[in-house]
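Deliverable D4.2, example record:
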Amino acid sequence: MASQTMLKFTKIERDMPEKRAADERNRDFREIYADYARQKAEEQSARCSQCGVPYCQSHCPLHNNIPDWLRLTAEGRLQEAYEISQATNTFPEICGRICPQDRLCEGNCVIEQSGHGTVTIGSVEKYITDTAFEEGWVKPIAPHMERTESVGIIGAGPGGLAAADMLRRAGVQVTVYDRYDRGGGLMTYGIPGFKLEKDVVMQRMTQLEDGGVTFRLNCNVGEDISFEEIRETHDAVLIATGVYKSRELAAPGRNAGGIVRAIDYLTASNRKSFGDAVEAFDSGELDASGKRVVVIGGGDTAMDCVRTAIRQEAASVKCLYRRDRANMPGSQREVANAEEEGVEFLWLSAPKGFTGDLRVTDAGNPADVAGPVSGVMVEKMRLGAPDATGRQVPEVIEGSDYVEEADLVVMALGFEPEDIPTLWGTEELQVTRWGTIKADFQTHETNLPGVYAAGDIVRGASLVVWAIRDGREAAEAMLAQFAAQTSVAAE
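Output generated by the structure prediction step:
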């Protein structure tokens, strides 16, 4: 029976959910992929080869039991498939949408390597959990027993929320502190709706609240509440703030009007999708409508920015990246989607400055700009010898400079950690030379007793799935510590 259900990759071709036409989807912020019908999800799941060494699972940061829930889906046992999926992943419906499957599970699928086309793991994962919500299988957290231990979590992003979920399931009292007015972190305000519609995130927030997690929003640690106060209130603390400080580009004309940070640009757009009043957007500062837009960067954040600008009806959208397509860090799937929607990529191109109404300051520095930006000074590049990491180093082609006209320039050069020890008045908290918090790789404990750290604030800007893994591991370590303390007290 099982052999008849599975191993159909030689008979059935890979088939992704239907993607809305580019000229239709680039007018709104709804997700671009349609949902699988039940028959199609079962059919695609049946392509799984059930291999003895599932590379899809080993290359997933959460080590999700992918072959198991694919088989259950193929057999029509969707509720069981959801339970298996949820056992290792706090937010499978989110990972199914935004994980770069082409670099993780699907990119390592055995039948993909044999030339048959990967199993559409991400789309099936999304289908399973969306169905679970529709059918009412996703219940509020209901611990078997309430515990007295209390944990304070700083940051309502994927790492913090994953830890909150696991701790509440064990009966721990959990309070999440976050600077924003909604939970979800970058899942809410950083990732556009065409990749992750916001009601998907909000339904998880509701589940956590209904399950007893307390949220203190609009709460900026170091201003509205001190870090020491949080430590004194709880038995353990998890720092899961993420990294929000944008990398800067020191170049002539950097202070021109119309040169903005990616996080500000995306947050404004996402707030508008909630119906919020956003002064910087409403004034036109963070609205790309009718403008010539240049986005600088080659990661997934840059892809989010260019595709957002298209939907805001920019006059033109160009992406400037110093390496070639094969060496860009962003998802190739996202690049293809962006190209379909009208984005032009300028490969092997790097900014060296900005044009505008330049004004020499009293110090004789022509770096300030009085008026709006009018263009990006671009120098063409070629790839030279590899560096210590193995990546080819971009080299300037002399005499290749030109000006790319622009009314709005979005800087998407990545994120760095904020100086948390200084901001929170905790100079004793150890950080690495990169400014990330120093924590044990397995337990996520910092040098401060009872203080843990997880996610991007430890590993640097990374994927949502890695933050989920870190948050779950930190929660497990806390529970082990609580159990050890209880055992000692009993003696």
